[in-house]
Amino acid sequence: MSNDEKKIETPEEELARLRKDRQDREGARAKDGVVRELEKERLLARFESELGARGSEFQLLDTRLPGDPFVVIKRPAMVQWTKWDQSKQTPTDKYELVAPSVVHPSMEQFNELRQKRVGIESTLSNLMAPMMGIFDAEEAGK
After folding, report:
1. Average pLDDT of every residue of the chain
2. Phi, psi for 17 (deg, rounded to 5)
3. What confidence tens digit (pLDDT) does each residue in 55-80 have?
4. How far apart (Å, rounded) are the C-alpha atoms in residues 110 and 39?
5. Are 73 and 101 contacting, i.e. CB atoms less than 8 angstroms apart?
6. CA 98 to CA 114: how far, in whole Å?
7. In angstroms, how far is the first alpha carbon of the chain from the final one?
8. 75-99 residue pLDDT tens
9. How far apart (Å, rounded) are the C-alpha atoms in residues 77 and 89?
10. Is 62 exposed, middle or buried (0-12, 13-18, 19+ CB in 10 A)?
11. Bridge-partner residues for 59, per DSSP?
């Protein structure tokens, strides 16, 4: 058989090859997951040291989507929060609240993420509310 001729796989061989390929992909994803968890723990340690307690001084958002950076936001200044709270809370208003509080990733990376994850400002502004002492009724009763 020449090099140009391809060997025809039996169904059993094809099944074995496809299973091996899937196991290789799953192994790579598991390794990526460990690396991502390590990055997350490093960010938590860094910002707990720099800003204070997670939940009251900063929050970390993990979109859990491959390639997305973690987003770390610090508690906004009261004047920012009040301005936003009294606004119509449009997407632009939410961006103006969130952007000054982003401490990770860089603003360039954050703006790239905004293009891929429409509405991320809403998620981040919701994460800010507890840092400002605002809890929903369920949370307040706990």
Report:
1. 86
2. -65, -45
3. 999 999 998 887 889 999 999 999 98
4. 17
5. yes
6. 12
7. 74
8. 999 998 989 889 888 889 999 999 9
9. 17
10. middle
11. 73
CA distances for 68 relative to 114, 121, 136, angstroms: 10, 15, 29
Residues 6+ apart with CB under 8 A from 105: 69, 70, 71, 113
The β-bridge relationship of strands 58-61 and 71-74 is antiparallel
- Please enumerate in sequence order all residues whose Cβ is within 8 A of that of 18, keeping only pairs 6 or more positions apart, or say none: none
Distance separating alpha carbons of residues 74 and 101, to the nearest angstrom: 5
pTM for this entry = 0.74
Nearest to 86 by CA among 97, 75, 76: 97
State residue 61's pLDDT score: 95
